[in-house]
Amino acid sequence: MPAFGLWVESMQVYDCSGYGIDATVSQTGGRIEVNLLGVGLNSPCAGTPAPARQFLPIGNLQDGVYAFPLSLRDAIVNEGTLTVANNRYVLSVPNPQGIDFQNLVLERLPAGIVWGYAATPNEQAEPVADNFIFDLKTLTSESGLSPGFYSYFTVAGTGDVFFHKSIAPEVTAEQFVRKLTADPDALKSLLQNYRNAAQQPLQIRCWTTSGEF
Fold first, then answer.
1. Is residue 192 over pLDDT 90?
2. pLDDT tens for residues 53-76?
3. 132 and 42, same structural domain?
4. Is the distance from CB of 152 to CB of 164 less than 8 angstroms?
5. Tell me, what's the pLDDT at 32?
6. Averaged over 28-48, what is the pLDDT?
7. What secondary structure does DSSP assign to the chain, as a single string?
8. What is the pLDDT of residue 149?
């Protein structure tokens, strides 16, 4: 299962993608401390201007209430609490300073969920992507997810799915969020067939609760 953690992003936009955020994370008993230290270049500077972005893994937490101080270079300390219960994480920060919290409630992904997209940058790719989604449905069922924020995507009350910008495709694409009902090897084989097709190979990203396929 994916470990709980925080996606953090700078408010400032830098001249290229590849910038990350230096931070320390520590957990002692019922206390989790996160300290954001600054911005650094994690990979070669390339692409269009973008904010610095980083995922900070914290771990698999047991149900309970945790003290959750989140600080900026020890100059600003936000004192909060994280409540883990009923497959949900709820962060409470009564007086946030220096940080704009986008999502304070996170739903835990149940085992077996698969999500991703097949890119359709041109008309030739569209019918192939349709075929892929059709075949994917033979290995999966509806996700059954309730509305909420699931870190990688949000399920709206209408049932529509909106991917988090950390994984959202940069081109037009057919997205999917499903529950795997077949053996994982069958899914891997399906992905390989479409990715390696001689005539019209697809760019497919596929994540699962066991990792990216």
1. yes
2. 888 999 889 999 999 999 998 789
3. no
4. yes
5. 95
6. 88
7. -PPEEEEEEEEEEESSEEEEEEEEEEEETTEEEEEEEEEEEEEEEESS-EEEEEEEEEE-PPSEEEEEEEEETTTEEEEEEEEEETTEEEEE-SS--S---S-SEEEPPPTTEEEEEEE--STTHHHHHHHHHHHHHTTEEE--PPSEE-SSEEE-TTS-EEE-TTT--SS-EEEEEEEE-S-HHHHHHHHHHHHT-SSS---EEEEETTEE-
8. 93
Model-wide pTM > 0.85? no
Q: Range of 40's domain?
A: 4-107
Last residue of a domain, one of 55, 89, 107: 107
Residue in the structure block whose two tokens are 């066991």: 210
- Strand-pairing partners, residue 54, are 8
On average, the pLDDT of the chain sits at 91
Distance, in Å, from the CA atom of 52 to the CA atom of 40, rounded to the nearest integer, reads: 8
Which of 130, 115, 118 lies closest to 171 in space, CA to CA?
Answer: 118
Length of the chain: 213
Q: Predicted confidence band at 2 (pLDDT cuts at 50, 70, 90)?
A: low
Among 53, 84, 107, the domain boundary falls at 107
